[in-house]
Amino acid sequence: MMVVPQGESGGNCNVTGCVVDLNKNCPAELRLTGSGDGDESVACRSACEAFGDPMYCCSGAYSTPQTCNPTSYSEYFKTACPSAYSYAYDDGTSTFTCSSANYVITFCPTPANSRKTTGVNQSAESSSSGSSVHRLVGVSSVTVIGFILTSVWWL
After folding, report:
1. Cys-Cys with 11: which of 30, 98, 122, 133 at CB 3.0–4.6 Å?
2. How far is CA 132 from CA 43, 103, 105, 116, 127, in A?
3. Calpha distance 154→112 (Å, rounded)
4. Which domain of life is it from (predicted)?
5. CA-based diameter of the chain, in Å?
6. Residue 75 contacts by C-beta under 8 Å, 6 or more apart in sequence?
7. For strand 95-99 and strand 16-17, is the pairing parallel, antiparallel, or unpaired?
8. pLDDT digits 0-9 by tens, 86-130
9. Cα separation of 91 and 42, whole Å?
10. Taking the CB of residue 113, how many other CB atoms lie within 10 A of it?
11. Alpha carbons 38 and 21: distance in angstroms, whole number
12. Where are the beta strands (DSSP E) in the chain?
């Protein structure tokens, strides 16, 4: 998913999201496989979801920014998707606050319609097939947090 602010008038408005197929190289212990497809990964879970350990969930004794640190699993996601939220306190590189912006949200983006290849003014009309682009308008102030999705989005 990619979130692209447009027409912003203030704040720290950055593109956030990810164009990488995280399932392709997902660590085996986080991989969710489809039925009947052997080892084909259909989803890559978070370490918190996979193990339920407070260290990975940033809960209990690990519930503060001082005690909750990135793990090798969150680093996998961060390396693949640098602007996406990879663990509970990944605020420094993954939290953006925009004022008076509209957003173009692309589900399942391809590199061809990512900001890196199209530039700042990507339009919903110019997106390639295979992606689902939705324009949200009339938003006065929103905090955009990029994160790894582990559930299905229904449109």
Report:
1. 98
2. 19, 14, 8, 18, 9
3. 24
4. Eukaryota
5. 50
6. 86
7. unpaired
8. 888 887 777 777 777 888 898 888 765 444 444 444 343 333 444
9. 28
10. 23
11. 19
12. 2-6, 10-11, 16-17, 31-33, 41-44, 95-99, 102-107, 132-136, 141-145
Q: How far apart are the first and last CA of the chain?
A: 13
β-sheet with 95-99: strand ranges across: 10-11, 95-99, 141-145
Lookup: tokens for 44: 């890559």
Identify any residues that bridge with 136 across adjacent strands, giving them in sequence order: 103
CB 147 within 8 A of CB 84: yes
Higher pLDDT, 10 or 68: 68
pTM above threshold 0.90: no
As a residue count, the chain comes to 155
Joined together, the tokens standing for residue 126 give 């110019």
